């Protein structure tokens, strides 16, 4: 695979869909097969001003009461007011441009697969594509970002995902899932992985990865831990 350079793999989906579990499983299996794998976390390694953005979300936007437990639901990306939409639009463009530079640098490395925990798709679904201008903006985001060879959207029942990770209102989780499914119809490289047992989902992902990948050259392999990619 070194002749073709590393292949980009992205995992996207609603919170609680099992992305972390599947990323760890796929990375481990690829390493066992002799492939060299680098892992990148979009929020930590790509997003512009992540700490500032998280701080504003938690301090400025109030949390909502959890309807069933003594918990507080997050109230950030599900809030859509015009001024936040404008700020997000600027930040998402910067994220796309930075992602472009990071992928270009990683492509020159000696990895066989570069696995992204979330990608620009997770930003694009935050934009409501109900107006032609919003749709044009989404196309611009996707055009600026490098297209992964393997783009996975892990589908999940919003109700089940909410039980596993009760962070956002359930109504928003349903809307969030619909946005991912709609995006997948517009982006050819996105492959929706239907819900199922963890092992079955893992097998479907690996079949896609290995079907279009040649055997690795050599037996040396390694994994970059999340957070290890910090562009200068």
Can you describe this structure?
A six-stranded parallel sheet has the order 7-6-1-5-2-8, with helices on both faces. It has a two-stranded antiparallel ribbon with strand order 3-4. The protein is an alpha/beta fold. α1 crosses α9 (198-211). It has helices at 19-32, 42-46, 50-60, 82-107, 120-124, 132-144, 158-164, 170-186, 198-211, and strands at 7-12, 37-41, 64-65, 72-73, 113-117, 150-154, 190-193, 223-224. β3 (64-65) and β4 form a beta hairpin. The protein has one domain: Rossmann fold (3-Layer(aba) Sandwich). The model is unreliable at 216-232 (pLDDT under 50). The protein is built from nine helices and eight strands.
